[in-house]
Amino acid sequence: MSGSRPGGMIAIIASLVVTGVVTFLIYLAFAESLDAVRQPMTTFVPKSDNAELVHGVYKLIFWLAGAVFVGIMALTLAFSLVYRERPGREARQFHGNSRLEVVWTLIPVLLVVAMAVPTFSAMSVLSKPAPQGALQVVAVGHQWWWEFQYPELGITTANELHLPVNRPVNVTLRSVDVIHSFWVPQLTGKIDNVPGHDNHLWFTPTEARPEPYLAQCAEFCGLSHANMRFRVFVSETPAFETWVKDAKTERVAPSADLAKAGEQQFTASGCIACHTIRGNPTAVGKIGPDLTHFASRTTLASAMMDRTPENVRKWLHNPPAIKPGSLMPNLNLSPEALDKLVAYLDGLK
Ligand code: HEC
Ligand SMILES: [Cu+2]
């Protein structure tokens, strides 16, 4: 007895310390995820009605699973202490107790029901059509960037989706090549963009803020899948309407000489074959992003870089060097051609 007791105590203390350290680490991981500014891809801080709904189901399952875990660990510890073998007493075992077996069958059944009911009810809300009056958006996946169309407004843009706060948005998901997946962690769960088949999702953003909601393609789609990011800007209705007004306007012919030369270069270098600039009758290409209001975007190449003149230049110099596999080829542009094109693109407000 004298030999086994201190060893047992040490084992108990050691397991308590390990449990404490693990709990603390889990807490740290959560605290980090809850910081939506430093962890902008968190799902723990939902900012839309439907993301909140999904998060509610998640929380319920988390706490139920947590209770099961803690309960079972506590019982295991208690039983191994109370019924352990001691000098002069054998470890106690027993077999066959119908009442006990019914209880430990019923408890999991109840737990599964408690999780299934809210899960199916949330799923039925998510699969309903979007509410009347929802803003219509078509999100088209391309290798490796996003096209966003607002069919009712006649707007097409790329990689930056603008939405008004507190108005449902109905997103039609399409793809022109392979399967992609639309995922904005704080606003909506993932749904695939499948070629030849329209999918839908809807949500109502509930918080306007200056920082964008960061988003990412969530289905492996080839070489630059990891570089297929996008941003969602949620603003108050008047600010959104101002954006719509600007986005609907056609290109204004450049006035500065360098930018004018850039517009000619844009045609001469064949950019017009792949890019649309509304109001420039020759630029009607559909392979790459619509550049009509390129200079009002904050990033380029699906949020790989900030849209600064230096970065635009780097991009035009050799796109596949920046984005592996990029379908915009290296056009071997001269430094002078780059100067002109950068000046032109910078004026596409
Ligand atoms: C063969 C088609 C093709 C040609 C020609 C082409 N591009 Fe592109 N361009 C693309 C594609 C595709 C993308 C999207 C790349 C990505 O993000 O993966 C793109 C992206 C861009 C972007 C970034 C847009 C954004 O919002 O992220 C700019 C700017 C651009 N192209 C300018 C040009 C200019 C200027 C020329 C002519 C010198 C040109 N492109 C020629 C296909 C083309
Ligand atoms: Cu992808």
What portion of residues is helical? Answer: 40-55%
Molecules bound to protein: heme C, copper (II) ion
Total count of helical runs of at least 4 residues: 8
Shape: elongated
DSSP strand count: 12
Gap between N and C termini: 83 Å
Over all CA atoms, what is the radius of gyration?
28 Å
Supply database-style keywords.
41% helix, 8 helices, 5-stranded mixed beta sheet, 12 strands, binds copper (II) ion, 349 residues, Helix Hairpins, Immunoglobulin-like, alpha+beta
Would you kindly provide a written description of the structure presented here, covering whatever features stand out?
With 349 residues, the protein is α+β, with helices and mostly antiparallel strands. Among the domains are: 4-127, Orthogonal Bundle (Helix Hairpins); 257-346, Immunoglobulin-like. It has 8 helices and 12 strands. Strands 3-2-1-5-8 form a 5-stranded mixed beta sheet. Strands 4-10-9-6-7 form a 5-stranded mixed beta sheet. A two-stranded antiparallel ribbon has the order 11-12. A hairpin with a 4-residue loop joins strand 11 (299-300) and strand 12. Helix 5 crosses helix 8 (335-346) and helix 6 crosses helix 8. The longest helix is centred in the N-terminal third of the chain and has 34 residues, at 49-82. The radius of gyration is 28 Å and the shape is elongated. The model has no long low-confidence stretch (mean pLDDT 91). Copper (II) ion is lined by residues 180, 217, 219-221, 225, 228.
